[in-house]
Amino acid sequence: MKKLTVRLIVTMATMITSMMAFPALAEVTEADLAKGKMLSFERKKGNCLACHIVAEGALPGNAAPPLIAMKARFPDKKVLREQIYDARIKNSNTLMPPFGAHEILTEKELDLVLEYIYSL
Questions:
Q1: pLDDT in tens, 4-31
Q2: Of 43, 54, 60, 120, which one has the fewest beta carbons inside 10 Å?
Q3: Structure pTM?
């Protein structure tokens, strides 16, 4: 019984923490998607094109998977956000920078990039 209680507490704490850390945009507008695209293509911010093929992107890299069919690949948007925030969590040898953990992107910028990438 004690193990079950501990698991329940840990699960609830994880859920609450993830909800607080994922202040998704309430309603995504075209302006939000445009800002997310700009950040994704900007070399000093997202720079997704350095490694990924992205629709409408010029001179994309090919070191990482193309950013297509993202809703099919990431049915849970939170998982995609975690990947962008710090890909090292799932793959310690990743080449992808930890955009959130190293504060390359602010939380707001990360959410804008997430919404743009998720729209692909």
A1: 454 545 444 444 444 444 455 678 999 9
A2: 43
A3: 0.77
